[in-house]
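Sequence, please.
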């Protein structure tokens, strides 16, 4: 895995980190989850927001103002390669700095005792 630095903390380090998993797309009535992700980053929390299932539609640039701010404030955004393929999304047209990863990488994050996971 490559080293990822978030708010001065290595994402792959043993420091406490927050993994937020978004499985809902733009049609989700409640965008509070993504707003909470922004708040976490603004307050200095090392956070990675992982898009999976219908959530990968948010990997398209300009699709969600909260994710725009999340990235601007230093949050790391990643998306599931399989879900992207299932939705026919070309990686060339995705948000800048989006990490495309497989579920094996996500499983490692989830199993890391220093990572707190919240699934939406």
């Amino acid at each position: 895995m490559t080293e990822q630095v978030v708010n001065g903390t290595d994402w792959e380090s043993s420091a406490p980190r927050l993994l937020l998993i978004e499985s809902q797309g733009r049609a989700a009535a409640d965008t509070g989850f993504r707003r909470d992700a922004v708040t976490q980053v603004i307050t200095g929390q090392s956070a990675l927001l992982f898009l999976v299932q219908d959530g990968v539609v948010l990997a398209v640039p300009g699709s969600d103002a909260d994710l725009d701010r999340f990235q601007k404030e230093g949050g790391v955004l990643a998306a599931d390669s399989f879900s992207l393929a299932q939705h026919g999304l070309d990686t060339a047209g995705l948000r800048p700095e989006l990490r495309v990863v497989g579920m094996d990488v996500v499983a490692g994050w989830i199993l890391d005792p220093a990572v707190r996971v919240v699934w939406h």
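Residues 1-10 have pLDDT under 50 and may be disordered.
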